[in-house]
Write a structure and sequence with these properties.
By secondary structure, the protein is an all-alpha fold. It contains ten helices and no strands.
């Protein structure tokens, strides 16, 4: 029970901390509303499930067996996140901005799935909370569902809160979209540096 509460606390901290998924939810919520942000939120959740499956199966073995494979995966994932930032900056003042179009379900999946920290989260954290090797699959599924559930709740709450004040933030969309772009680029670059 104690380890379960510790895992839930880690999930809560992870879901509430800034990252590509949270940034996409905030950006989409400012530019649109909760209803139009739900696809990216569900995409993030789906990406987390896929990342858990990958991290707890063959990908984890590949990453641990080859430092080059790990670095290559990190660079590719970081490049995608930086690409999202460049795209947001490029279209920040345009009528056809990423913000005007919004992040999609597919973007949410890719943001979660291609975030190197997500794969490391599953690969490094799960073994600490799965004590029974015989029930590894069951325990990994339970932990994944708990993380996804908490992430969904946090993202819906954040989007809902922003939805209430988005009319005030609408006057600053260009600046917000530029900041979003810079933050995505910074997150992407951090993957190359770390």
């Amino acid at each position: 029970m104690e380890s379960q509460l510790a895992f839930l606390a880690v999930c809560l901290a992870s879901a509430a901390s800034p990252g590509p998924g949270g940034l996409a939810v905030v950006s989409n919520s400012i530019n649109h509303n909760l209803r139009r942000t739900l696809p990216v939120i569900f995409g993030i959740a789906t990406g987390l499930i896929l990342a858990s499956v990958l991290a707890n199966t063959w990908l984890l073995a590949v990453i641990h067996s080859s430092e080059l494979a790990f670095e290559l995966m990190t660079w590719l994932c970081s490049a995608y996140i930086a690409y999202l930032g460049c795209k947001a900056l490029y279209y920040a003042k345009s009528e056809m901005s990423v913000a005007a179009k919004g992040y999609s379900f597919k973007n949410g999946v890719l943001i979660s799935l291609l975030n190197p920290k997500t794969l490391v989260f599953f690969g490094a954290l799960f073994p600490m909370f799965i004590t029974d090797e015989a029930n590894f699959i069951r325990d990994a599924m339970v932990l994944t569902l708990e993380l996804v559930g908490i992430t969904l709740i946090i993202h819906v709450l954040v989007s809902s809160a922003i939805d209430k004040v988005s009319h005030i933030l609408q006057n600053h969309l260009v600046a917000i979209n530029r900041i979003t772009g810079v933050m995505f680029i910074t997150l992407g670059i951090s993957g190359f540096v770390v």
